[in-house]
What we know:
alpha/beta
Amino acid sequence: xxxxxxxxxxxxxxxxxxxxxxxxxxxxxxxxxxxxxxxxxxxxxxxxxxxxxxxxxxxxxxxxxxxxxxxxxxxxxxxxxxxxxxxxxxxxxxxxxxxxxxxxxxxxxxxxxxxxxxxxxxxxxxxxxxxxxxxxxxxxxxxxxxxxxxxxxxxxxxxxxxxxxxxxxxx
Length: 171
């Protein structure tokens, strides 16, 4: 279903835009196709470390799953992709939107994190949870062989919004 949505979005982009905007749409289409190629077949990859609690609020635990690369860690540690799931801030969890999981086969570690959803906690609780997850990952970087100079956050939909808010909140 996701493939159909991406292709349909790009088809509409190409059909209803001016020539200059079509160039950007073509680039978007190419990136989308590459992402579809990269994401194919990730369902069989299990986390190396699963259900690690990075934060507890009252009795609610927030978890991270860590996927190690297939190659041994370099001396400085693996670069880390922090994946923040989408879901309109209202649904889904860290098991969704693992579009970059295949990059673990190319030397990147991936951490997929949970955050409190909007029905459970009001904003800015979500960005606060993301901050805590990143801090936890930095604190435990040596244990998991992460290079703290090579962290990146990414996400789809609400996850992308939270990644952007995190970047803008940094000094």
